[in-house]
Design goal:
single chain; about 750 residues; alpha/beta; TIM Barrel; 4 domains
């Protein structure tokens, strides 16, 4: 048995060494983030989710578990990193939608040893694709690692590893408020009357007079009602933010890791985003918290299958890494079989020498565990130009020469086909001049569509170009390929699709649309787009759907999603979700702002009437500030004010009455803003007015990267300026008003 194991080891290393020089190549132009943590849900177009793999027979799983330790081949494949197996790694990160495009023979010929497949992202779990990859690579010698995104919730928002969460409570207190009351008061006023009077004058030494009818005035009195104010002691409430701790998120994450390890014949678990977002120093025991979680994950994996390797994607900031991210290399190495620092030189404005020095530091602090260098395949997040094969080789050499045990590229969907063909010329071509390439395939278009979709969802804009079959093409030319491929898929044909040189859309424009478009309609639009581009040799500014005009950028994004769905499911979707908010504004809505876009109690931003009204108000507005200003002015100018405490109507109610207090004014304005993609929140403070001091609520709207005060209860106020009162002290800001 030991002899067979030794021969198997020598055979694998021999294949790896023979193909060591064949893996360098250029990568395609796409934006990727600082580390491989973002997931893409392939079924975002249709209301279908990719479920976990529940269809694997239990007896198969049991067979895997029972035979796992006994087979000499499996013992080799699942040997821990400390056994020396991870000494010459050539791998890449991979997204689930690319599994179907994988060519195993090409990977083997290129010397690929490891694939890190996104299995649990913050959006979904992709165990169906994990099983497909395992089946595809069976017997190839290529290891599969389940890539797990850790401390991001389902909305992509960072989760405190310590389980800290906030909640709000209403605290009663006794205070005095000015209360109006009416009294009758005696008021003096003037009454005019006319009468005849003698007007004396002197003439020829004698006094004479004339009678004149003259107006006179006298004082009279009347009683009128007058509003006065008195101080009344009442029970008031202030809102306080409090904190608690829960292990629910971490427990569920560990369970997922254990289940994946148990139910799938994987070689490793790869932890990603297992860190603080640069703020670990603000938390007590931040570094200890990260180390403890990795230890817990390590123990969970090893208790199920001891030979499954545990690795983690780590930040590369050497001596300050623990301070900012909670990742202490020396401590983490105790619970990792190998470390994968993401030495992305472009994001740090560095060079290959920096890669070498960072890797050297980490190797020296890794407790003897292997270090696999995670390499960036493009110049930087602000410059998406792909690195050449020569430059990639320089980067990998810098890492290996400083102690790295191999490297992993991010990610498969971004790797040019020349990488697998062994082209090390640095040109990144797929053979011949790219200008001579006249056609492409649906498979190539599917792959490019997934990259464009990923880029849009990360950057809220289209990329400048995309590479298809080794040829860089514009977004106009890519839209032509997309609609052509969608139409061919519908017809059941897979003939090559010709490239077409096209001009840009001269003046893209469109409406804000959020609707389900059925298959017959998007196919009809695809036919019209193809005809237009072939007739006018340029891209259209928009296409007309039954729900409105859809801008050029949104057309590229929506048809890319359709092709991604086809790539994942093997068929076109029955309907597509057309939501132009993704590209409707230059503002990037970060994860911490997402809570200010959701409908909440009394803020019915998903109400069709509210959304329809908001869309009509902002029609033609081009910036988020202009949209926010229009919505603010409409509420200010179309609603009247009535004093009462707390919520009475909510957004939908006050839209009907057009009369309410500050709280209901805010409900409507915030609901309208959120309905069209403008983050909005409630502001609450004790305020002094000219007539009284009382708790006051108003809206705040987020536009152009800035929060603007939006108190629509007074005609004196404008967006960003509140003149009707003075803030005495703050009570809080909320995504959902607690009263």
């Amino acid at each position: 048995m030991k002899r067979h194991m030794l021969l198997a080891v020598l055979l694998i290393f021999g294949v790896a060494l023979l193909s060591a020089n064949s893996i360098y190549a250029t990568l395609e132009d796409q934006q990727i983030i600082n580390d491989p943590n973002s997931s893409t849900n392939p079924s975002i177009i249709e209301d279908e989710t990719i479920a976990t793999n529940n269809n694997a027979p239990n007896n198969n799983i049991n067979t895997i578990n029972n035979n796992h330790e006994n087979s000499s081949q499996n013992t080799l494949e699942y040997a821990a990193a400390g056994d020396g197996i991870y000494s010459d790694v050539k791998g890449f990160w991979m997204r689930p939608e690319d599994v179907s495009n994988l060519n195993v023979n090409t990977l083997k010929a290129s010397g690929i040893t490891d694939i890190f497949l996104l299995t649990k992202g913050y959006k979904a779990t992709y165990t169906t694709q994990l099983q497909a990859l395992i089946n595809k690579l069976k017997g190839s010698g290529i290891r599969v690692h389940a890539w797990v995104t850790c401390f991001l919730d389902s909305n992509g928002k960072w989760v405190d590893p310590q389980g800290k969460y906030s909640y709000e409570v209403k605290i009663p207190y006794t205070g005095q408020v000015k209360v109006p009351y009416t009294v009758k008061v005696k008021v003096a006023y003037k009454i005019s009357y006319k009468s005849w009077y003698k007007a004396w004058y002197k003439s020829n030494g004698k006094w004479r007079y004339n009678w004149k009818y003259i107006t006179k005035y006298k004082t009279a009195y009347k009683y009128v009602n007058q509003t006065r104010y008195k101080l009344v002691t009442k029970t008031l409430y202030r809102v306080e933010t409090r904190y608690g701790y829960s292990t629910t998120f971490n427990d569920a994450l560990i369970k997922s890791i254990s289940d994946i390890t148990k139910n799938y014949n994987i070689d490793g678990i790869h932890l990603d985003y297992v860190r603080y977002p640069g703020t670990a120093y603000k938390y007590t025991d931040g570094t200890k918290t990260i180390t403890s979680f990795v230890q817990r994950a390590y123990n969970a994996v090893k208790s199920v299958k001891s030979k499954v390797a545990v690795s983690a994607a780590l930040m590369p900031e050497t001596s300050v890494n623990a301070k900012y991210y909670g990742q202490d290399y020396a401590q983490l190495s105790k619970y990792l079989d190998f470390l994968v620092p993401m030495v992305y030189k472009g994001n740090y404005k560095a060079d290959s020498a920096w890669i070498g020095s960072a890797v050297k530091y980490i190797v020296n602090n890794a407790g003897g565990k292997p270090v696999i260098a995670g390499l960036q395949s493009y110049k930087s997040d602000s410059d998406l130009t792909p690195l050449t094969a020569i430059e990639l080789k320089q980067d990998s050499d810098a890492a290996i020469n400083n102690g790295a045990s191999g490297y992993a590229l991010f990610s498969y969907g971004l790797i040019n086909s020349s990488f697998f063909s062994g082209d090390s010329s640095g040109s990144g071509s797929t053979g011949g001049n790219s200008n001579t390439i006249t056609s492409t395939t649906i498979n190539e278009i599917k792959s490019a569509a997934s990259r464009v979709k990923e880029f849009v969802e990360s950057n809220k804009r289209l990329p400048n170009y995309v590479t298809v079959s080794g040829k860089q093409i514009s977004m106009s030319e890519f839209l032509y390929l997309l609609v052509s491929s969608v139409l061919q898929v519908n017809q059941g044909t897979s003939a090559p699709i010709k490239f077409m040189t096209l001009g840009e859309a001269p003046s893209p424009s469109g409406d804000i649309v959020n609707a389900n478009i059925d298959k017959s309609e998007y196919l009809d639009v695809a036919r019209k787009l193809k005809t237009f581009m072939e007739s006018y040799n340029r891209a259209p500014n928009y296409a007309v759907y039954s729900v409105g005009k859809v801008k050029f950028d949104d057309l590229v994004y929506s048809f890319s999603k359709i092709m991604v769905f086809y790539n994942t499911n093997g068929r076109l979707p029955n309907y597509a979700i057309l939501d132009t908010k993704t590209l409707s504004s230059s503002d990037v809505i970060s994860s911490d702002l997402q809570q200010y876009l959701l409908p909440t109690n009394n803020c019915q931003s998903d109400d069709p009437q509210i959304r329809s009204l908001a869309l009509s108000i902002i029609q033609g507005a081009t910036t988020s500030y202009e949209k926010a200003d229009r919505l603010f002015k409409w509420v200010r100018d179309n609603l009247s004010y009535t004093f009462y405490y707390n919520t009475k109507y909510g957004a939908t109610g006050i839209l009907k009455t057009r009369d309410g207090n500050c709280i209901d004014h805010s409900h409507l304005l915030i609901a309208m803003a959120r309905s069209v993609g403008i983050p909005a929140r409630y502001a609450h403070a004790q305020c002094e007015f000219t007539t009284m001091t009382v708790g006051h609520v108003w809206a705040e709207l987020y536009a152009g990267g800035t929060w603007y005060t939006a108190d629509a209860t007074s005609s004196r106020n404008t967006l960003g300026v509140m003149q009707n009162c003075k803030i005495l002290y703050w009570k809080g800001r909320y995504a959902q008003l607690p009263f």
